[in-house]
Amino acid sequence: MVVATFVLWHKRFGDAQCLDDTIPFVSNTYQYMTNQKRFLERATDALKNNNIIKFYLGPMTVYMVAGTRNVQAMFRQSDNLSSEIMMVHLVLPRVYGLTKAEVARWERDKTGRLETPAPGTESHPKDQRYFFTLEHIYSQYLKPKRHANLLMETYFRSFSQKLDMLPIGTWVDVNMFDLCKRDMTQSAMTALIGPSIFELNPDFIDTFWEFDSIIVFLFTGLPSWLNPRPRRVQQRYFSMVRKYLDYAWANFDRNGPTATADWEPYFGARVARELNMWFRDTGLCEQSAAGFLGTLLFAENGNSVPIATWGMMEIIRDPSLFEAVREEVIQASTADPVTGARVIDAQKLISSPLLQSVYTEILRLHMSFNPTRQVTKPFKMDGYTLKKGAMVQAPMHVAHYDEAVWSVDGHSASQFWAERHVKYIETKDQSGKSIRKPEFAMAGRPSSYFPYGGGTSLCAGRNFAKGEIIMTLGLLVSKFDIEFVAWTQLDGSPSDRAAQNDGRWAGAAAMPPDREMKLRWKRLW
Ligand code: HEM
Questions:
Q1: Is residue 170 within 8 Å of residue 524, measured between CB atoms?
Q2: 199, 247, 401, 417: which could form a disulfide with 411 (CB 3.0–4.6 Å)?
Q3: Which residues of the chain have pLDDT under 50?
Q4: Residue 268 beta carbon below 6 angstroms from any ligand 1 atom
């Protein structure tokens, strides 16, 4: 009764409840920047009693929201919330490394991402509508199924070729996470930007994963004198991308027949080429173009690779799941009667119920990103007035682990359960015999599941990512007999437990496994 009266009083008079802050304005800020995992645990507890809480990040007010209506409101297109301001103030200068003058050009663009400029901005020059043009290139050349499928095919060809170099019938020791980090990443990058970046920079993959490990620090904006490593790694990584761009421009013929090809070796897929041509035409300096492209490579691999690794780890540790997944691959493929080599029907595999369920589970449990918007006009959410200038975040971790939404039949929300999203339908086969047919059906509310974010900044690569992840799982499970050997620390030393989410990535991206899985495998075809 007392709590209810307190909540009603707060709603009636305005502001959301504050998250405890031992030293006001300092403790929460420090924990948010240095231990996001613990911060999110505290926020999750607080959000159990209230669908909106408030805290301060330095001088900035931040609202964290949960619950169907609030999450939907946050992703809805509206004049009250913007994702562009954050991009201008945090992402472009800190992560992409754009110069001040370039950031200022993006800042002047208030027209939004939609085709029709935001009201009152109609006179802004069309060739300076940067957010819209970026969105337009993704909408034309990355999001559509046709382009996502082309990327997936190139990825799959390259990844298969790497596996085909292993001898047939011989047991080989493998570290699962390490293999995905190397071979998936190289194949996905080749599909997106072509192969030359690896020829020009032999240690590009290692540098990329080093960049992946410091990107959170770039976001938080800790000054370089306090922590110089992130900036150093960023510069080293972007100069490798820059070297690649210089080479690609020196060899690519913009007026030649490959300028509009689906894929060519210098710039790779059409989306990467269109982006690079636009960077050049719009006067973005070479180092900033490298920042853009380097960050796109992070978007492409920083989530897909750890997520696919989790998928393999779950499948390998459960032999009956391994067999069931292999059976689905057999159903979705044809085999050469002599060599046993399989031709997998990608579209059929991607719509297989069990694999889709596994894919949904691993994204639910391991993706942890806080989609963020900034309040441009005060407005009401869940009875509270959100102040202009404040940030609003919907931490997906809170929604994805909500027991009330995801817990079923004794399988708690925090547990991986491969069949959580499979429903069995009673039907009849051709002979009229009753059969139970599995179908994919999301077990919880869609508004409690948003691994790809939502609204206008919904992940542009999600169609490619889904195909890439499911095809990787299907290929590995059908191509190899696999035996689990041991869990180890990431440096190879023994571990007394299985992998868990590495909390250093909490709130920022997919949380990778904090342990390696050692295994033996034997190629079958
Ligand atoms: C498991 C895989 C992936 C996950 C979970 C994922 C998730 C996300 C999330 C959460 C966002 C931010 C959305 C927001 O701010 O509301 C995002 C943005 C983005 N992602 Fe992905 N992503 C994945 C794979 C990919 C791939 C393979 C690509 C391909 C290049 C890609 C390209 C992008 C781009 C370009 C954006 C920026 C979109 C924009 O601001 O308009 N992502 N992704």
A1: no
A2: 417
A3: 1-9, 12-13
A4: no
Residue 199 placed within a domain: yes
C-beta atoms surrounding 32 within 10 Å: 22
Q: Are both 344 and 385 inside the same structural domain?
A: no
Residue 456 sits in the same domain as residue 383: no
Structural domain contains residue 122: no
Ligand 1 mean position, distance from CA 325 (Å)? 27
Question: What is d(CA 353, CA 272) in angstroms, rounded to the nearest whole number?
Answer: 32
Cβ–ligand 1 distance for 465 under 6 Å, the answer yes
Q: What is the pLDDT of residue 429?
A: 86
Half-sphere exposure of 147 (CA within 13 A, CB side): 22
The pLDDT value given to residue 25? 86
Look at residue 98 in the predicted model and tell me its pLDDT: 95
* ipTM > 0.95 (yes/no): yes
Residue 3's domain comprises 1-73+372-408
Taking the CA of residue 367 as reference, the ligand 1 atom at the shortest distance is 5
Instruction: Supply the pLDDT for residue 2.
Output: 41
Residue 308 CB–ligand 1 contact under 6 Å: no
Q: 459 among the known binding-site residues?
A: yes
pLDDT in tens, 220-274: 877 888 889 999 999 999 999 999 999 999 999 999 999 999 999 999 999 999 9
422 and 391 within one domain: no
**Are residues 424 and 438 in contact, defined by beta-carbon separation less than 8 angstroms?**
yes
Beta bridge mates, 52: 65
Supply the DSSP string of 380-428, one letter for each residue.
EETTEEEPTT-EEE--HHHHHT-HHHH-BTTB-TTS--TTTTEEEEEEE
Q: Are 278 and 293 in contact (CB under 8 A)?
A: no
Name the token pair of 72. Answer: 């939907």
